[in-house]
Structures are given as structure tokens and as C-alpha cells.
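Morning F.,

Quick status update on the modeling queue. The single chain you submitted on Monday has been processed. Sequence for confirmation:
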Amino acid sequence: MAHPKDIPLQADLADHGGCANSEPFALRVLGDSMEPEFRDGNIIIIDSAAAVESGCYVLAMVDGEYIFRQLVIEDSRYVLRALNEGYEEIEVPGIEAIRGVIVQRSGVRRKDHKHYG
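C-alpha cells below.
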């Protein structure tokens, strides 16, 4: 089930590019934790107003740092899962840790572009 929610962004992230909190924004993927779907250097578009549901890709705040993972909601547990099995799952207290939902991936080639949601 989708959980619509206004997701506040911290000033250091929300201020990039002059976007309002409700506007989508772009970030570059760093590292291999979300391979093979998202490669190092891909650009992802995050929508802080999108509905959050199990299975979606999210930007979350964990221990004061932003992290990009797939959200899995099992019973009352909220788990952030990397697609690369070399990374451990991270349990978060709830939906308040989610800062936005990834709605698009862009790569170097047109075939690398993909929409989510």
C-alpha cells in the first residue's frame, strides 16, 4: 500500500539548484551498492512528493547521511536493501527516514534511461 507523505529535505540537500522542497531534483549515483540496476555515475531523479511503497527505490537519511536503497516494508519493519548483495540491509525506524522516491534514471546512452513508479 502506498503511503503518501510530505517529505522534508534538509537545507543542505534541498538548496541545490534552487528547487523547492516539493520539486524533483537530481543526484549522481556514487559507488556500486545499487548495481546492476543503477551504475556508478548514473543520474537519478528524486521526487520528495511521490508515494512511498514497498519495493520502490528511495533516498533515505541514516545516521545523519543520505543513502540510496530499495525500500522493503515487511510487517511493521522498514528495511533499506542494496541491490548488490555485498552490502548489508539497514533497518530504519519508519517512513520518516525516507527523503524521496527515485522516479527516473539517466545514463550515458538513451537506452540507459528508465522511469520508475
